[in-house]
């Protein structure tokens, strides 16, 4: 959840948890020491903050995060084609433009992947063709050697009979 919060809110998150057995668990979206240092510095810069105002600050922050989450969920639903009835023509046009841009990005990525795969298959096909050519060359040499050996054997046999 801390990682999701970090990603959704584009925020630095540091979480320290002690289990009931006393085992330490921690998560940091960046560097834990940097998060703690930043927290310590922020606390030092607000010397007159008391517990009540800090609670209110965190309540406002939580409300802001809830609103951001709600907005993101609503945006996600709209991108999925749900809950469009409240949108006007301008909003729908904007949504359509966003979807078209996303689709173009997806198609470009897909085309690039397919192009890379085709190039790789061409490269492998070329290697196989080269190997096949080399094997045919070797087969011809072996066939010629076999014919030459057969000719020598028959010559030897015929010469011995005469």
Helix content: over 70%
3D shape? elongated
> Helical stretch count?
4
Oligomer: single chain
- Mean pLDDT over the residues: 89
Q: How many distinct domains?
A: 2
Terminal residue distance: 98 Å
CATH superfamily of the largest domain: Transcription factor, MADS-box
Largest sheet entry: 2 strands, antiparallel
Q: Determine the strand fraction and express it as a percent band.
A: 5-15%
Offer a concise description of the structure.
Its main location: nucleus. With 162 residues, the protein is mainly alpha-helical. It contains four helices and two strands; from the N terminus they run αββααα.
Walkthrough of the structure:
- The protein is mostly helical and 162 residues long.
- It folds into 2 domains: 2-80, Transcription factor, MADS-box (SRF-like), CATH 3.40.1810; 87-162.
- Helix content is 77%, strand content 6%.
- It has 4 helices and 2 strands.
- The chain has helices spanning 2-9, 32-45, 51-79, 89-161; strands at residues 14-18, 24-28.
- A two-stranded antiparallel ribbon has the order 1-2.
- Strand 1 and strand 2 form a beta hairpin.
- The longest helix has 73 residues, at 89-161.
- It is elongated.
- It starts with a helix and ends with a helix.
- 0% of the residues are buried.
């Amino acid at each position: 959840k801390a990682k999701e919060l970090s990603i959704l809110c584009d925020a630095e998150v540091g979480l320290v948890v002690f289990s009931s057995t006393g085992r330490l668990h921690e998560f940091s979206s960046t560097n834990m020491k940097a998060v703690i240092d930043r927290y310590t510095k922020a606390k030092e810069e607000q010397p007159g903050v008391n517990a009540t105002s800090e609670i209110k600050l965190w309540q406002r922050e939580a409300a802001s995060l809830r609103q951001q989450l709600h907005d993101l969920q609503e945006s996600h639903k709209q991108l999925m084609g749900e809950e469009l009835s409240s949108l006007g023509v301008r909003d729908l046009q904007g949504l359509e433009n966003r979807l078209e841009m996303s689709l173009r990005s997806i198609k470009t990525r897909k085309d690039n992947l397919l192009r890379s795969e085709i190039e790789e298959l061409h490269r492998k096909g070329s290697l196989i063709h080269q190997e096949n050519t080399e094997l045919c060359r070797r087969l011809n040499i072996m066939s010629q050697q076999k014919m030459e050996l057969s000719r020598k054997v028959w010559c030897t046999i015929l010469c011995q009979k005469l």
